[in-house]
Write a structure and sequence with these properties.
mainly alpha; Hypothetical protein af1432; binds adenosine-5'-diphosphate; binds nickel (II) ion
Length: 215
């Protein structure tokens, strides 16, 4: 780990320590470790990947009061303040701005291999057992009901509509979590994602069985 990465890591650790929305420091740490794991088979500049993984949620709209696309600038300014060179700081900014899921009908546009890896690592943490836990933690924190059988999922056409949706948490599976396996960029992530996807499908089946008293 370079000195710059280590400084960013301490900063981010401080910022995310007390989060209870599923965006706590351990989320960042899992994304960071997964991104390093993916880099081993997929390539890309390791320092850029480490910095972008650590900074990817630094000013996410879900925690900053609803401002969309603020994270890139926050990441850029932090990096420049800590002596990072301009071109690397810009590359990290581009990744942070592009990493988020913006709605079922909004295409991703991640260009660099570094960005594709960080996005995959973030998405892998949104699915599977941990993804399920994070979704319910997030929903509870935002006062969302866990499930309303009569309220159906919606496929969102813009980031604004998606970000302002107040759906119950089971809908979130259909609006995002179950769609992620087909929106992973790298082969290494697809392999890890397919098991986590099946786990969520089985989970939902069990959830409905219990909901409907199918004993
Ligand atoms: P992204 O930026 O791609 O949304 P994050 O790292 O910010 O990824 O993680 C988003 C997390 O917040 C996911 O684990 C997701 O399940 C949770 N989340 C976001 N929106 C909702 C929602 N409407 N209901 C439940 N969970 C949500
Ligand atoms: Ni994240």
């Amino acid at each position: 780990m370079t000195e710059l990465v280590s400084k960013i890591k301490s900063h981010v650790e401080g910022v995310f320590k007390h989060d209870a929305t599923g965006h706590d420091w351990y989320h960042i740490e899992r994304v960071y470790k997964m991104a390093i794991h993916l880099q081993k088979s997929e390539g890309g500049d390791i320092e850029t990947i480490e910095l972008a993984a650590l900074l990817h949620d630094i000013s996410d709209h879900k925690m900053n009061g609803g401002i969309l696309n603020a994270g890139g600038n926050v990441a850029y300014n932090l990096l420049i303040d800590l002596g990072c060179n301009e071109s690397k700081a810009l590359k990290v900014k581009e990744i942070v701005d592009g990493v988020s899921y913006k709605g079922a009908n909004v295409a991703d546009n991640m260009q660099s291999i570094e960005g594709k890896i960080v996005q995959d690592a973030d998405r892998l943490d949104a699915i599977g057992a941990i993804g399920i836990a994070r979704a319910f933690a997030f929903g509870g924190n935002k006062d969302r009901p866990m499930y309303l059988p009569d309220s159906k999922p919606e496929m969102h056409d813009s980031f604004e509509i998606y970000a302002n949706s107040k759906s119950h948490t089971i809908n979130h599976f259909y609006e995002k979590l179950l769609l992620l396996k087909d929106r992973l960029n790298t082969e290494s992530a697809v392999k890890i994602g397919s098991e986590r996807h099946t786990f969520m499908e089985n989970y939902l089946q069990q959830f409905y069985n219990e909901w409907n008293t199918k004993i």
